[in-house]
Structure formats: structure tokens, C-alpha cells
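Reminder to self: C-alpha cells first, then the designed residues, so the page reads top to bottom the way the pipeline ran.
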């Protein structure tokens, strides 16, 4: 090697989500083949989903951070790597694999994913950043790589049984969806998008998306692009059960199936507002609610917020993707 210092990788892993023995075997193999040094192994805990481990990896001067865990691990590691030049490699695990899906990464090939971590190319993507204000005035700052949401989606996550999720995966959300839809409460809030004027709105759900694909072939935000320097916003407010059916038809059928082909996009045309769904794009979204509401980031609940300030940071995260021809 021309570089006298061997490159090293840190592996930040959730022991509940991965087979640690298999992971160590594959990482060791790929590191040797790529002529990298001994990896740094950092295990997440119930108290720290990955931010502290990422800080430790940065202090160690690693050249790559590999996240092996669910969406919570990926989000936490991305939060720690925000604005750094250290690339993040994903080893998809868990239920959603949201970022991996939106990057079109292979989900069920551990050896291939590990090899790509060491031999792939770097791709800058945007990060969503959100300041969450709690009742009483306390504030917290977090990132999201895929979506932030309030309303039905956040309540659904809160209502999902964790044990059932471990056994049934994404299907565990179905019961929570039904329970959440019975909740008559809507979101009432004032918001400002970019430099526009402050408006009032009522909605069942607010989604701020850096990208738009979800499991079960759902394309929630069909025009969201992960590196375009802006996020897409969706307000959902169906008036009755027929409205919910229209929402489901548009998201599951029109967006999830028809829009995924070039001919389908030509048929349905541009994404447009209707009485149930309203789409917006921007770089900053500020909202204040009339009461505390559940908020979620990348599929994990983050408690209740009375206000939030969300913005996009273009190219703030570098991810490792397969080199051309390696898929």
C-alpha cells in the first residue's frame, strides 16, 4: 500500500439485531482482503443507541464507520457523523432498514454488504436536523436520515408492541395502525415554510421526508430525493373513512406501484395536492402545536413535542455504496 498507515474501520453494532459471531467473521474476512487494520468493535447499549460509540470512533481516527443494527442504530450513528468526512457503511438489520431501502442497497446479503463497506464508493447525502421543544421549554437536537413525523404515524409507532415487532417484523404495525386510526384527535398547529408567511393548519399527520420509500413497497413521498438539498412535506387530512381509503389507494397503489415505472409516471403525471393529501417542498419547516404531540424520527418515538424547527443540511452525511458493477 502507498499509505504507510493501515486504514481502520469501527463497527458499531446492536447485539440484539445482529448475529455477532457471523458479523465478526465477515468483517474480519473483508478487512483482511482489503488490507485494512484490525477493526474497532463498539457495542450499543439500551442507554446509548450509537452516538457515544460514534464519538469514540472519531477520537480513534477511524477511516470508516460500519453501522450494524436497526434504523435506530443507523440514525444515532448518522447523528454522530453529521458534518464529518468519515463515511458510514450500512449492514441492514432489523425491521425497516429505511435508509438502505432508499439507497437501493441489498437487504439480505451480509457478505456482500460487508465487502461493499470496504470496497465501495462514497456518496454524500442530505441530513434532516430537528430541534424539538418539550412542554416546559426544554429543547433537544437530533437528526433524521429518512423521515420525521407527527400524528398518526407517531402514534402508530408508540402503539406498536415491541415483542410482537421482534417476532412479526413490519406486520406488527398493522394492529397499531388500526388503534391509531381510532384516535379522533387531529394536529392543530401554526407553521412557516422557508421564508413564507406563518399559516394555520389542521391535519391527522405531518411528514417531513428526506427520502420517501417505506417497507411493503410503500412510496410515501414519490418525488423526494435524498441528495437534492431539500425535504418533502406531506400533510394528510382525510375527512372520513372514504378519505382514508383514497389516501391508502394513492400511497399504496399510485405511488407504490404505478409511479415506480417510467410509463406509470407518464400516465399519472406530476404529484398533485387533493383534498386528503397536500405536498410541499422546502429547506426549513417550523411549527408550533396547540398541545403536546407524539413525534417520531426514522421510525422511533421521541416523546411529545409542543414545537419543532426542522431543516435540511445538504451533503452532511457521507455513505458508502457499492462501486459500479458490484450490485
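Designed residues (327 positions):
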Amino acid at each position: 500500500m502507498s499509505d504507510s498507515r493501515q486504514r481502520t474501520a469501527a463497527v458499531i453494532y446492536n447485539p440484539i439485531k445482529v448475529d455477532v459471531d457471523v458479523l465478526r467473521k465477515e468483517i474480519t474476512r473483508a478487512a483482511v482482503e482489503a488490507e485494512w487494520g484490525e477493526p474497532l468493535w463498539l457495542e450499543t447499549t439500551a442507554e446509548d443507541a450509537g452516538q457515544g460509540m460514534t464519538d469514540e470512533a472519531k477520537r480513534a481516527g477511524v477511516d470508516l464507520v460500519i453501522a450494524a443494527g436497526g434504523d435506530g442504530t443507523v440514525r444515532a450513528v448518522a447523528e454522530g457523523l453529521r458534518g464529518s468526512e468519515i463515511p458510514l457503511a450500512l449492514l441492514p438489520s432489523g425491521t425497516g432498514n429505511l435508509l438502505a431501502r432508499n439507497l437501493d442497497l441489498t437487504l439480505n446479503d451480509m457478505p456482500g454488504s460487508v465487502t461493499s463497506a470496504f470496497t465501495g464508493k462514497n456518496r454524500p447525502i442530505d441530513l434532516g436536523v430537528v430541534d424539538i421543544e418539550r412542554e416546559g421549554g426544554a429543547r433537544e437536537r437530533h437528526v433524521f436520515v429518512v423521515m420525521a413525523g407527527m400524528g398518526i404515524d407517531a402514534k402508530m409507532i408508540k402503539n406498536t408492541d415491541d415483542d410482537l415487532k421482534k417476532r412479526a417484523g413490519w406486520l406488527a404495525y398493522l394492529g397499531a395502525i388500526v388503534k391509531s386510526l381510532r384516535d379522533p384527535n387531529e394536529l392543530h398547529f401554526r407553521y412557516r415554510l422557508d421564508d413564507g408567511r406563518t399559516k394555520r393548519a389542521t391535519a391527522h399527520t405531518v411528514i417531513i421526508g428526506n427520502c420517501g420509500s417505506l417497507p411493503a413497497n410503500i412510496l410515501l413521498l414519490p418525488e423526494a430525493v435524498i441528495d437534492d438539498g431539500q425535504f418533502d412535506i406531506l400533510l394528510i387530512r382525510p375527512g372520513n373513512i372514504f378519505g382514508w381509503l383514497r389516501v391508502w389507494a394513492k400511497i399504496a397503489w399510485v405511488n407504490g406501484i404505478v409511479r415506480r415505472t417510467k410509463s406509470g409516471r407518464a400516465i399519472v403525471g406530476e404529484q398533485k395536492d387533493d383534498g386528503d393529501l397536500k405536498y410541499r417542498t422546502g429547506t426549513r419547516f417550523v411549527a408550533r402545536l396547540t398541545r403536546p404531540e407524539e413525534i417520531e424520527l426514522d421510525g422511533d418515538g421521541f416523546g411529545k413535542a409542543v414545537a419543532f424547527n426542522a431543516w435540511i443540511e445538504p451533503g452532511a452525511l457521507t455513505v458508502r455504496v457499492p462501486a459500479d458493477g458490484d450490485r
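Residues 14 and 162 are 16 Å apart (CA to CA).
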